[in-house]
Amino acid sequence: MRVLGREDGRDGGFGDRFGDGFDARAGGGPARLGSAELGAEPGHRATLVQFSSAFCQPCRATRRILAEVAGMVEGVAHVEIDAEERLDLVRALGIEKTPTVLVLDATGRIVRRAAGMPRKVDVIAALGAAV
Question: Could you please report the per-residue DSSP string of 30-55?
Fold first, then answer.
């Protein structure tokens, strides 16, 4: 989905399209995501969850951005999930494209969500809602 008004043509990041949180239960999904759903240990302060697919070019750049931010902020983990391998979770959370990034707080609650490649500054700002 394209964001109207963007001059650079990129899909919107956290700052462009998403407000306060997202209730995963609206799509029938879990209210919180833990290590069982993520397939990895979440961060003790926050977790950046990236849904990717094998041939997605923006997913590669998103991976670098999220890994860099996670490395900058203590207690923040970056978890990448292959959307094709986890169709159950994709459907439960209403993921419609890759990359999609979810920001989880320390309890695993989804506090921000963005589709498309986010800007680093937007990821850092979104973490503010989680930590």
Answer: -SB--HHHHSSPPPSSEEEEEEE-TT
| Cα 24 → chain centroid | 13
Closest CA to 73 of 111, 33, 118, 106: 106
Would the pLDDT of 59 be above 60? yes
Determine the Cα–Cα distance for residues 76 and 130; give it in Å rounded to an integer. Answer: 10
Q: Which amino acid is at 48?
A: L
Residues with Cβ within 8 Å of residue 110, at least 6 apart in sequence? 21, 22, 23, 24, 32, 33, 93, 102, 103, 104
Q: Which residue has the higher pLDDT, 34 or 17?
A: 34
- Cα separation, 30 vs 62, in Å, equals 24
